[in-house]
Amino acid sequence: MTDHSREEDMRIRTSLLKIVALAGFLLTASAVASEQQRPVASRLPCEVGSYLMTDGTSLDIGPGAQGQLRWRRPDGRTGALTPQGNGRWTSTLGWTSWPDGHHVAIRDCARGNIRFDDVAGRRLPLVEIDTRFQGSGIVLAGRLTLPPGEARVPIVVLIHGSENSSALERYSLQREFASAGIGVFAYDKRGTGASEGRYTQDYLTLAIDAIHATREARRLAGARAGRVGYQAGSQGGWVAPLAARIEPVDFVIVSFGLAVSPLEEDREAIEFDMERAGYGPEIKAKAMEIADAAAAIIESDFTEGYERLEAVKTKYGGEPWFESVRGNVTGYLLATPPETIRGEGPRLLEAVPAHYDPLPVLVNLEVPQLWIFGGQDRDAPPHETRRRLATLRSAGRPIATAVFPDAEHGMYEFEEGPDGERLSTRQPEGYLDMMKDFINTRMRASEYGSAEVSAGQP
């Protein structure tokens, strides 16, 4: 090992020790908060549930946009349901407005009967246990969903991305996994839904909350709890490994998350913007000047750097490639007046650790991991993350990766409209099956639709 390598290894280990020490303090301190009573979640429409169809397939019905429901199939197909009266609903493809020819009938919701096109089905009697539990200094609302019966099952705890909506209301995975024989614990992150506290994007605080959620899931599942682990999307890709390093679990699944910092994410997104538009290294270098100017504003907590950003906008605003610059946060900064940014920016990225380095955690994480990416993810391009994970895997870390080449952020396939905007149509075939197999320790090297899999079950 070279002197440089020794210094880097010591830096990583020192950083991790500081994180773990602070986490231990927060876990201890959080026990003193008192619980406040509040409903766990608002009442969902009667139609919401998982259904077993007479042809042996399964169907999930969940909340949709205002006044709508959403159906999902395990193979990734989905559609929005609009009521037509008398318990009938018509469907449009994915998240588009295009009719897809499907229709649903739920005329006696209380009895749990359904008809999808010409196939009948009945609601599965999933076991749902609502709870309120202690998070890091506040009280969180959660729900354990189990398959019917008394059998021991794996439990997956769902960790949020950066969204501020209620997971208890919106996360279909809590029913989709449960209908496939996997227990699920979902909870509203702090400051959302029925949970107490103030919304934050501080990864360590969110990791401590996830640890408390895992403990609550184990407590509620009791003798039915088998292997327990995390499934996390987007921002949760920074939170779940951190939680697993502080208090180990049996597995971690990261969907469309990254192993680089938030600022590096923005730079990679801009590079990908240039690649998709057909520009080469010279234009990429110019685009990085814009990324640097945007980063300076973020690093100052939105107090400084506006003149620098205006200067690069003036310098390059007339060049043809400029309109293709989107990035992650940079696009917002380019399109928004400085006076608006000064007011909105601190709230938009409140507590986000812009330079957070996930490597100290990942280098020392022995928990089996599955990282799943979209090859067309323009919000969180996975190129550098995949390279880092491949290096860690070569060094012996238990990491499997998979790429769905036609999927974007959120793991959605799409079509482009006349204006170039993406219209989400479905999730990739094999995405749900891959996660289910990994949780059950029987992941295969192929047979997951178009996925390109590197290494099987770690």
From TrEMBL:
Segments forming domain AB hydrolase-1: 156-413
GO MF term (any one): hydrolase activity
Pfam families per UniProt: Abhydrolase_6
Family matches, as Gene3D superfamilies: alpha/beta hydrolase (3.40.50.1820)
Keywords: Hydrolase
Keyword Hydrolase on entry: yes
InterPro entries reported for this sequence: AB_hydrolase_1 (IPR000073), AB_hydrolase_Est10 (IPR053145), AB_hydrolase_fold (IPR029058)
Protein name: Alpha/beta hydrolase
Protein source organism: Pseudoxanthomonas putridarboris
